[in-house]
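User: Could you write out the 3D structure of this protein bound to NAP? I've included everything you need below.
Assistant: Certainly. Input first, then the structure.
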Amino acid sequence: MESPASDAGGAGWPVPHDEAMRRAVALASRGLGTTSPNPVVGCVLLDSAGGLVGEGFHAYAGGPHAEIVALAQAGERARGGTALVTLEPCNHTGRTGPCTDALIRAGVARVVYAVPDPSPVGGGGAAQLRAAGIDVTAGVGADEAEAGNIAWLTAVRRGSPYVIWKYAATLDGRSAAADGTSMWITSEAARMDVHALRVTVDAVIAGVGTVLADDPRLTARNLRDGSLAIRQPLRVVVDSSGRTPAEARVRDGAADTWVATAAEVGAGPDGRVDLPALLAALFRRGVRAALLEGGPTLAGAFLAAGLVDKVVGYVAPKVLGAGPAALVDAGIGTIAEAVELEFTDVRQVGPDLRFTAVPRVKED
Ligand SMILES: NC(=O)c1ccc[n+]([C@@H]2O[C@H](COP(=O)([O-])OP(=O)(O)OC[C@H]3O[C@@H](n4cnc5c(N)ncnc54)[C@H](OP(=O)(O)O)[C@@H]3O)[C@@H](O)[C@H]2O)c1
């Protein structure tokens, strides 16, 4: 769609629903990284003739929902019109009122949404709208809307955050040199890309081994001038017995930090921090998307437990020939046990390659 709602004025410009939903999905993505623990949502409003009269997205938790922004823009022109929303309109009074009520009050005739709301409190919106006589259609643009909101949807459906494992390695799969030095395997461009990724998640997770070896800050910042991003993910150090030094940079106060010990979270059979319990605790703290940044031991434990939803790997055109692998023991002994993934994106970042992969869905 070329024309923004403010110019459109509605009349004489019917917009196909699939096109309007694509626009709603694009709008939703503008909220990525700032809406948690809420989803990203986009909304497009068409008047009774099918012309674009309003659009909006949910920008931050506690702020107006996408439908409310679009309805405010459309005003009276929403009456008899169609609302296209990437997620089933909520039926819940939280920090803001239910969107279903606002849509009913505005007199829209039709609501088209892409994906049902899986949350126990937010769901039920479609039934409420139908009961008020509104024509409701589900599933338009569902694949695109699902992909755009995958972290939140996955996390809410299972009550555990969506985990992205990020690592940097050489072409021969080394995460550090034989002497333990690892700064820097990848280029500044790749590291800046990682900081952009940190801004989109609610928590960054590292093992105490990485904290002791590298003393990372784990903040999201501009590498050129060191300035911090406005919103910082929670820094989580997985540290069974509390070995994180008091003077470690992760404790510098630049962002919230949780040193998660086995005593606090619970211990697994090996006496180390119980990882599913850790993720459940993070979910209760409002974490929906988490970036697992290392190192190889903790990443191996997450993979062995089937707790990784996406892999983002940065591979530098360097070889070391010795040094630790990007992943230590994921409990895999034979090729038949390999964790199978499929690439969803491959691109060059500076001199390095970045690939994104997700676990392959097994066919029955
Ligand atoms: N290239 C990269 O992308 C990258 C990223 C990060 C780090 N690194 C490198 O990795 C090296 C550090 O490796 P590392 O493997 O020692 O660090 P790590 O994976 O960050 O930390 C491992 C530690 O996490 C703790 N842990 C707590 N619960 C655990 C659980 N359930 N399963 C597994 N571990 C658990 C264990 O110590 P406790 O039992 O005492 O808690 C374990 O020794 C450094 O050289 C660093 O430079 C590379």
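The two ends are 40 Å apart (CA to CA).
User: Perfect, thank you.
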